[in-house]
Amino acid sequence: MNSLTDSLKMIKEIALPSPSKIVLIVIDGLGGLPDPPTGKTELETAALPNLDRLATEGICGLTDPVAPGITPGSSVGHLALFGYDPVRYNIGRGILEAVGIDFRLQPGDIAARGNFCTLDENGLVTDRRAGRVSNEKSLELCRMLDGQLAGDVEVLVRPVREHRFVAVFRGPGLVPEVSDSDPQQLDVPPKPITALNPESAVMAGVANQFIAQAGKALAAHHPANMVLLRGFSRHPDFPSMNDIYKLKPAAIASYPMYRGLAKLVGMEVLPTGATIGQEFATLRQHYADYDFFFLHLKGTDSAGEDGDFKRKVAVLEEIDGFIPELKKLNPDVIVVAGDHSTPALLQGHSWHPVPVLLHSRWCRRDSVSQFSEPACTAGGLGRFPATRVMPLAMANALKLTKYGA
Predict the structure, then answer these.
(1) Predicted confidence band at 3 (pLDDT cuts at 50, 70, 90)?
(2) pLDDT tens per residue, range 374-384
(3) Alpha-carbon gap, residue 38 to 21, rounded angstroms
(4) Domain ranges of the chain
(5) Is domain 6-90+238-396 annotated with CATH 3.40.630.30?
(6) 55 near 357, Cβ under 8 Å?
(7) Is the pTM here over 0.85, yes or no?
(8) How far apart are CA 77 and CA 339, in angstroms?
(9) In Å, how far from its chain's centre is CA 328?
(10) Which band of pLDDT confidence, cut at 50, 70 and 90, is reported for residue 1?
(11) Alpha-helical runs (H) found in 132-290
(12) Which residue, 46, 254, 341, 367, is most buried by CB atoms nearer than 10 A?
């Protein structure tokens, strides 16, 4: 896992340390689909004068986080934007959540990302997020489940945010190659966890035992009357962004999973608040201290998953209002991108390519004047793998020397 791909080896050879600054804004679940009454996507519907101005002054296109037709998870979508091959460096969601909340992992620990969910009287999933239960309720439920024993294995349960929690399995004979229990759709029962190879049979059995115990403990706690587990994983060994890109990178993210991902690729995670304004304030406060900033904005994805078209539009407009503050900092390169599309129409991640814009003194401007899916389709960057975003940002920040003789 820690060996570099050919593309990262090349970047490492030609990367130059410099004082120029890059800001990568990731608007989670950015892409959308047209709302039937208007025929316009969330981006087209929103009033985005500042993002439109960035698009007019820069160059735009569409990215494929993994490959055309493949619906990406959040972790692989971000890894691609950081320049890591999302197939080779794929990692389960569990370890990201655990690292993101600063859980002290021990060698051999297996972490899984959990959702509190709602089952009906027939055992079918009616809400994968249990109505997004409050942080306070989640803490109460996690304390109920924490410390359960499944044979020789202890299960440590910690809250993350709202309906999300981490289950860490600690004991002998555990390997993470097991399936998920989360069916990722409604009106079907949770899936039994199965071993994906003979060595993972113990892990599968322990996980199923924990889920059965959790179901009994939560039976009276509707809407959070069951758990779903996915993303079983252990701590990986990733090459750091500092080593590859010669950067001093920082991450500004309020959601633990994205903070965990940033740590795994070597970013320093800055303390910040939960609102968009607080995250931009953190950027201003620390702007002199780093030369690369990853700024993660979550609200668009949550609105898309909830099928709330109007709320996603409102979050986009709120983000747009902070772009003038960003421009006052005068970064050498601004990239606005998404880790995947989350159309409100689909209420989930989708395979659709994601709009991206790159703003710098050195980019060749195209004719795009609106930051939207149709406009970016005609942009000068074309449609390209998301792994190429970082090399483009580095080049436009004059942080790459020439390759070859």
Answers:
(1) low
(2) 999 999 999 99
(3) 39
(4) 6-90+238-396, 96-233
(5) no
(6) yes
(7) no
(8) 4
(9) 27
(10) very low
(11) 135-145, 201-218, 241-245, 256-264, 276-286
(12) 341
